[in-house]
Amino acid sequence: MAGVQKIVRGKWNMVIMYFLHQQTLRFGELSRKLPTVTQAQLTKELRMLESYGLINRKVYPQVPPKVEYSVTEMGEQFMPVLKALEKFADTYETEKV
């Protein structure tokens, strides 16, 4: 359980996973989808997700540099967990007193 906790504790991890599950994105594209997240925070979260093996960072050898982020096979296996959390959150919001 502690292993899962480190994944979901990141403030933006689940939102980043949600967007990357939909499509491969570059840093700037992700940044535009998360306008309240600083570049430093987004970089930190992306590095964390990459270190957990949930996302892949692909660097293209060109100028200017091009970097794309995508969900790994392990990240795909995490998506049912994310969807279950989303369903719980929706239920919680409608049923809380």
TrEMBL record:
Question: Its domain of life?
Answer: Bacteria
Q: Which PROSITE patterns match?
A: HTH_HXLR
Any signal peptide, and if so, which residues? none
- Key words of the record: DNA-binding, Transcription, Transcription regulation
tRNA-binding as a keyword? Answer: no
Q: Please report the stretch or stretches of sequence annotated as the HTH hxlR-type domain.
A: 1-97
Short name of one Pfam family for this protein? HxlR
- Record keyword Methyltransferase present: no
What's this protein's name? Answer: Transcription regulator
